[in-house]
């Protein structure tokens, strides 16, 4: 059995700040082919689907589709604020390398 991804309190707090649950939306984290390293993350507000893994805290939900789940096993989904901007980030123990922008990785 694979370890599900973990979502930090900071990421759930950001979802609450933007009112995702109030809008009936979830944060979808997916892995797609492409990017400069072979795979890339897609992170967006979306509607839930039946085959999603649902991670929930205080009414806010983060979902991962069934195809992306093995790529994100044990990953940590966080929210960071830096001088260059604020964004959701993924620390993925399965990635063997990643690009400088943090949205593309290889396994």
Automatic annotation (TrEMBL):
InterPro entries linked to this entry: ATAP, ATAP_core_dom, FeS_cluster_insertion_CS, HesB-like_dom_sf
Top-level taxonomic group: Bacteria
Domain Core: 6-102
GO MF assignments: 2 iron, 2 sulfur cluster binding; 4 iron, 4 sulfur cluster binding; iron ion binding
Database matches in Gene3D superfamilies: HesB-like domain
Biological processes annotated in GO: iron-sulfur cluster assembly
Entries under NCBIfam families matching the protein: iron-sulfur cluster assembly accessory protein
Protein name (Swiss-Prot/TrEMBL): Putative iron binding protein from the HesB_IscA_SufA family
